[in-house]
Design a protein that fits this description.
mainly alpha, 2 domains
Length: about 475
Amino acid sequence: MSTATSKTAKSATGLRSERGPILVSLMLATSLVALDSTIIATAVLTITKSLGGFAQFPWLFSIYLLAQAVTVPVYGKLADTFGRKPVMLFGIAVFALGSLLCGLATSMVTLIIFRAVQGVGAGAVQPMSMTIAGDIYTLEERAKTQGYLASVWALSSVLGPVLGGIFSEYLTWRWIFFVNLPLAALAAWMLWRSFSETAPRQRQRIDYPGATLLTLGVGTIILALLEGGQAWGWSAPISLALFAGGVLALVLFVLVERRAENPILPLWTFSRRVIVASSVISVLVGAIMLGLTSYVPTYAQGALGADALIAGLTVGALTLGWPLAASQSGRVYLRLGFRASALIGGALATLGGASLLLLTAHSSLFEVAGSCFAIGIGMGLTASPTLIAAQTSVDWSERGVVTSNNMFARSIGSAVGVAVFGALVNSRVGHAAHPAPAALSSAVHWVFVGVAAMALIMAVAATGMPKGRVSTAITPEPAPIMD
């Protein structure tokens, strides 16, 4: 499709439009990550009973998110060099391989390793879906089409916990990974068949030294957080050495990035207010999301006595509220502006986080779900508009990097956030394979404190978004280029 042709198709943004098959393929690809984010949370206690290692279960999330985070910027560079389609197809294939291996895992250690493989694939799938949507739809069109993409998360928020609970209770937890295989095959086939692209590409060297240092730095710090107070004391020499080594690796990473010809995290992105504010919000969104999806089901089961299915539906309120709000956020930011949308969302998330602090051992699951739903609504009004604001502030040749950086920030926030929350919980429940309800409730309360604080900081960061209506706040972007 040429630039001129794209204008005639501007009004057609539905599933039956000329670009409809591409949108369907993006929805299918997104479903892989969306379903994985909700289906595993309900099976944590079942998995740890089967393979052992309750104290290790945060690694199931952290290693996945770390692998996703450090590969996202690499994929962004590759996408701006070779195009979005080959990167997306590679990511789907790796994600499917990781899912197969996870389903066959025989120990917690092997499951954690195979989750890393899944994360490497997810590092391409989610940002490429957002980048392709940014390429083929204009700003106004994205306000409509994001409703379709958000519907995937809405469906997954209901279907994921249900499937996770059914598999855990009546079949085997291994099916929470095997179910990804047919979805991955269908998503890859649809994308291969429907999407082709021709766009200006620049061959660039990939910053592998930067990626390596980033992985070592963040990975070492996460290791220190998750094992501190468990495998060794917080003040033990190995703990201090890990923290110091992680910080040193990150310092070296910054020095390498300053001299790299094509840095994995371009320093110019930290000089643009919209991109910085969007990234900060993305870090906090990631931490809040994983903190709740990791510990609300565990809290509902271990402290309130719910079964796996009901516990999954409880946290499903969070992942249902998000896409419902995201599907309508386009109308909000087109009418009121990016800043207003983000501020409203931040305020709602803060209120939801504060309500979590009122939960007690006698609270009902409806109260837990209500708090999660409010937080989800708030993040839906914040995450999508701030990402779109960052995308729209750059042209095609930079959009892959900007989108990937935003997804990288969310993944880093998720990985470090769940590690911090894991350290808080483990420090209070110790090495108990099955913590007592009172101890677990007290430990998870500190997760809720962290979530409430992060939601408040997110609301403050929203002030960095462009002020005023979208038409005057952002420089018009180039028309999408396709064939």
